[in-house]
Amino acid sequence: MKEYLSDRINSMSTSATLAMAAKARELRNEGKDIIGLSLGEPDFNIPDFIKEAAKEAVDQNYSSYSPVDGYAELKQAIALKFKRDNALEYTPSQIVVSTGAKQSLANVAMVLINPGDEVILPAPYWVSYRDIVKLAGGIPVEVSTDISSDFKMTPEQLRSAITPKTKMIWYSSPCNPSGSVYSREELEGLAKVLRKHPGIFVVSDEIYEHINFRSEHASIAAIDGMYDRTITVNGVSKAFAMTGWRIGYIGAPEWIARACTKFQGQITSGANAIAQRATITALEAPVSRIQYMIDEFLKRRDLILELLSDIKGFRVNVPEGAFYVFPDISSYFGKELRGHPIANASDFALYLLEEANVATVTGDAFGNPNCIRISYAASEKEIREAIRRIAEVL
Ligand code: PMP
Ligand code: GLU
Q1: Is pLDDT at 17 greater than 90 in this prediction?
Q2: DSSP for residue 339
Q3: Is residue 54 part of a domain?
Q4: Is the distance from the beta carbon of residue 15 to the nearest atom of ligand 2 less than 6 Å?
Q5: Fewer CB within 10 Å, N- or C-terminus of the chain?
């Protein structure tokens, strides 16, 4: 029946993170003791003060359609958040609230990319960027980085990737999957190149902003010459453990925000009303209220790095944010483990799933074929057991 489906969907790949999580769920239902380190999802509950706000919103009958671009109070709270955390001045008319940052990204792609436009993706990049760009008719131009540059794109690499067709550059910092964080100086370096090309837009995905173990988070929109062509993407899935409540947002030049609202108005309308009301409370709270989760992620990062350092053949960078490690496991390629030939990272991730019952994600999905992604948004007990099993089967 595939021939009846559109070319659009037939040429799209399934999200590897979601596919691996579904596979782990399926195996668990079959009775297997799977440890899931594939999905990038905090294992914390939503903080009680946010849950209370949602309950109040239910009682206050926030049950009608919400404004397409978000409640005015929420956009105001987002504007204050941008000012407080990022030194960015966005008026509410420059803000659009969506059903997760994933929708924010899709909106931006649909309103800015024309068929044939090139979009530079420093690799490794978050799994959905490539397909969202392709869906909009764009051509992803991958710029490979590796562990030697801490998986960060240099200004020189950016310069040589730019062509007359370059429309945008998309990146995340802290980065999913590498955990790398661009410093302000590093962003200045990229901005210096971009200032010579005024027609290139930047999507700065800052959804892991608060899960950052450096003392500073830098937003490229705050750098000279960048504000008028940057779309700053953020959301509450990660720092507030609100993945299932589906709220993301952008701050952008007003004409881009307006276009996103127009697009969203034909596709999904305003985001979930209750989740939006709860997000007001989440964003108005001082970051100190969620610090316990950030502290815990740091402890787990140190733990997983220590445990992985005992495994032969893993080369690991020190991630400075998010909750992933992205080890280079290419030293296993060409080997056979317990009868499984390991030709690439997908074979390796499958081997870990089948023999160690640990779900990870192949680096191919993120544009790096030498690595796998391991999420450490799991309990210390699960992390210890998962790495023990991995070590055993290797
Ligand atoms: N960007 C990055 C880098 C992510 O890791 C995620 C996680 N799903 C998203 C965007 C989308 O987040 P959400 O749709 O849950 O807001
Ligand atoms: N961002 C998370 C991840 O990368 C959630 C899954 C998804 O939305 O693809 O695993």
Answers
A1: no
A2: T
A3: no
A4: yes
A5: N
Last residue of one domain, picked from the residues 266, 285, 304: 285
Q: Which ligand is nearest to the CA of 377?
A: 2
* Last residue within a domain, chosen from 268, 285, 302: 285
Say how many Å lie between the CA of residue 179 and the centre of ligand 1: 14
Nearest CA-CA partner of 32 in 372, 354, 349: 354
The ligand with the least distance to the CA atom of 361 is 2
Both tokens of 211, joined, read: 């899960």
Answer yes or no: do 142 and 8 share one domain: no
**Distance from the CA of 193 to the center of ligand 2, in angstroms?**
30
8 and 75: one domain? no
Show the ligand 1 pocket: residues with CB < 6 angstroms.
40, 100-102, 126, 172, 176, 205, 207, 235, 237, 243, 248
User: Do 33 and 79 sit in the same domain of this protein?
Assistant: no
- Number of structural domains found in the chain: 2
DSSP 17-45: HHHHHHHHHHHHHTT---EE--S----SP
Q: Which residue's CA is the nearest one to ligand 2's atom 10?
A: 40
Q: Are residues 115 and 242 in the same domain?
A: yes
CA of 342 to the centre of ligand 1 (A): 30
Position 273 pLDDT exceeds 90: yes
In this predicted model, what pLDDT tens digit does every residue of 221-260 receive, in sequence order? 999 999 999 999 999 999 999 999 999 999 999 999 999 9
State the residue range of the domain holding 339.
2-45+290-393
C-alpha 228 to ligand 1 mean position (Å) = 23
Distance from Cα 317 to the centre of ligand 1, integer Å: 22
* 126 Cα nearest atom in ligand 2: 4
Rounded distance from Cα 195 to ligand 2 centre (Å): 32
Edge-to-edge order in the sheet of strand 361-362: 324-325, 372-375, 361-362
Q: Phi and psi (nearest 5°) for 96?
A: -130, 130
CATH number at residue 308: 3.90.1150.10
| pLDDT computed for residue 19 by the predictor | 85
CB 43 within 8 A of CB 386: no
- 100 ligand 2 Cβ < 6 A: no
Per the domain annotation, does 50 fall within a domain? no
Partner residues linked to 358 by β-bridges? 35
